[in-house]
Amino acid sequence: MSSPKAGTEVKLSDYAGMLPETQPGASMIVTYDPQDTSRILPKSWAEDPPANLPAYGTSALAVIFLGLAAAVIWRRLWILRTFGPDEPPASSTAN
User: Fold this and answer.
1) Given a cut of 90, is residue 7 above it in pLDDT?
2) CA atoms of 56 and 14, how far apart (whole Å)
3) SS3 at position 92
4) Residue 30 burial by CB count (10 A; 0-12/13-18/19+): exposed, middle or buried?
């Protein structure tokens, strides 16, 4: 949410441990959360967050783990189809 109110001093929230480059006493356009006005970021960061290792690293790990899970599932299916019994066990057949 944006507001035309000027001159209000606020403490900026960090984004992945980063704070914006600014000088003491400099003005900046900010965006804040209306439900929690203590959450404030520069408007440019709210619209286009800066690149950072935690966000990219987490995304990369998610893709890796998703790929590994899919590989394990496909391998398990291949093993069951290739080396599994030709007929289902007698307990699983209908009487």
Assistant:
1) no
2) 17
3) helix
4) buried
* Residues 19-51: tens digit of each pLDDT: 777 777 777 777 777 888 777 777 777 777 777
Cβ burial of 40 (10 Å; 0-12, 13-18, 19+) is middle
pLDDT in tens, 50-90: 777 777 888 899 999 999 999 999 999 999 888 877 777 77
Q: Is 50 left (phi over 0), alpha (psi -120 to 50) or beta?
A: beta
Q: What type of residue sits at position 71?
A: A
Task: Judge whether 43 and 73 are in contact, CB under 8 Å.
Answer: no
Token digits for 89? 């066990």
CA distances from 15 to 2, 33, 46, 52, 88 (A): 19, 14, 10, 9, 56
Identify the residue with better confidence: 7 or 86: 86
Give SS3 for 27. Answer: coil
